[in-house]
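cron nightly-structures :: item 1 of 1
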Amino acid sequence: MEASYRFFANKACKYYPCHEGVEELNCLFCYCPLYEREHCPGKPEYLLKKETGKDGREYTRQIKSCMNCTFPHEAKNYDVMMQFLKNAGGRKKEKQELCVAVMADIHNNHAALEACVECALQKGAQKFIFLGDYVSDCPYPQKTMKLLYELNETYDCKFIRGNREEYMLDYEKSSEKNWKPGSASGSLLYNYENLTRRDLDFFASLKNHGAVEYEGCPKLAICHGSPKSAKELLFEGEENTKRILSGLETDYLLSAHTHIQFAWEYEGKQLINPGSVGEPWYYGGKAQFALLHCDGAAWRAELLRVGYDVEKVLREFKESGLDAFAPSWARMSRETICTGVDKSTPVLKRTQELCADSYEWPDYPEEIWEQAIQEVWPEMQQE
């Protein structure tokens, strides 16, 4: 064989062939020198293993598996392998790529959050940014908060406060406690009553906008709605979005709140919306998040959509009592989770119109909510 020093097949080895799918395996790099490399050119998989630490707490460890990778055994990759070995010797230090997972609008959907976190870790995420709206609309806020606390203890996490967290804090300070069971405020009340002192203190500790800077990477501006307000909606192409980006000191803005996943550039500035984890719009209701990759010069957004156990969440609406607390609102939330179609916004608008002359929020009768649903979404079956 020409340049035979590049190839050696040890067919006497009892493990040969140790991989399938390659006609002849190059055994020169049997013990792959790329294993310790964080971002190697092969096709490793990242397995998750739950372990218990010395403090008794359970955490998830990420393990790199190369069982299905044949990259070092293919003769054509000899030069790549040798170049890496030369660089590792100190002649040239490899520039590592940073991978950051960005998630937002969880709305208590802990099953969707678990699926997104697992996907992010399998794809090599090293850090996390969360853009708010952790609670409300779905059942069991305590399960979502528990997972967020565990992630914060194990990984480098940054958190921003969303408008739903602001609702909880404002209600706590308010002397007029007027939330009550029913579709107008029942979901908010259910969430408030299931939050702990730790949760409210955590929300209070968060800013509603800020900046994140990782060593060697461009600075990221982060917010829930906009840097001005957690409730401002930034859609691509809109005038308010252009004004925000034009006045931005950084080249990147991470924003959520719209539940619409996209990356949009204007005048050299990029707006990245990771979509919604818990109540996503479009894509059949798949949970959405983003991975940001940085090689030192720029950030590249990878927009991801993940399937999860929707049936489990639907069962929890009934088990938790949320269905009874906010009948029509919970029903619309379930529809959105199943279909990826926003049911609540147009129904809320129509309900407000029907109640305008006769009722004050939150005293909107359930029969009017039902009337609005039948007018806006006649195809939605009655319960």
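cron nightly-structures :: done
The chain has two domains: 4-91, 98-306.
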